[in-house]
């Protein structure tokens, strides 16, 4: 049986093109810049309304910063806190408050570097549980940080 290499390469190329064309019709949910802007605006508006000085960091699923801000009178350290909260929430796929509950039950996980498990970090989930990013908010009380993060996530839906 003789194999025609040219024919085999042509068939493989056509299969690859067909596969790519099919894949283009199916995209994974992602965190859009438009949604991020809405979330950032909602958090800043709530903070201003209440006199909170916040830092806000929104990460995409690749842990890249999509948007961030440190309000005028927010402490510089709050930006680092917001970044760590967003990263923690993204890594664990849950709120930083839920991460804290796990760490209380299994303290060995506290050794993971870069984990900040206090209120103010939330995952950003769209559709059927598609994790597309996370937000971290820091600069006020934990309750206020969490409220601001929640307002942002709700605005991004």
The gyration radius over C-alpha positions equals 21 Å
The biggest beta sheet, please? 4 strands, antiparallel
Helix content: 40-55%
Give, in order, the helices and strands.
HHEEHHEEH
Strand content: 15-25%
Strand elements, count: 4
Instruction: Give the integer mean of the pLDDT values.
Output: 89
Spatial sequence of strands, sheet with the most strands: 2-1-4-3
The outline comes out as globular
Please count the helical segments. 5
Question: Structural class, judged by helices and strands?
Answer: alpha+beta
Low-confidence stretches: none
For the termini, the CA-CA separation is 59 Å
Write the layout of secondary structure elements.
Elements lengths: L4 H20 L8 H18 L4 E6 L4 E6 L5 H17 L3 H10 L15 E6 L3 E9 L3 H15 L1
Helix pairs in contact: 2-5
């Amino acid at each position: 049986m003789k194999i025609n290499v040219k024919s085999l390469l042509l068939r493989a190329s056509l299969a690859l093109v067909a596969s790519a064309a099919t894949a283009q019709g199916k995209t994974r949910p992602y965190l859009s810049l438009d949604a991020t802007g809405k979330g950032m605006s909602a958090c800043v508006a709530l903070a201003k309304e209440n006199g909170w000085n916040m830092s806000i960091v929104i990460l995409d699923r690749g842990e890249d910063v999509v948007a961030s801000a440190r309000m005028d009178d927010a402490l510089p350290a709050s930006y680092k806190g917001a970044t760590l909260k967003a990263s923690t929430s993204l890594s664990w796929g849950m709120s930083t408050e839920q991460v804290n509950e796990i760490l209380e039950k299994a303290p060995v996980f506290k050794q993971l570097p870069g984990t900040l498990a206090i209120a103010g970090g939330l995952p950003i989930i769209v559709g059927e549980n598609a994790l597309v990013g996370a937000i971290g908010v820091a600069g006020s009380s934990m309750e206020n940080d969490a409220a601001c993060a929640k307002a942002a996530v709700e605005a991004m839906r």
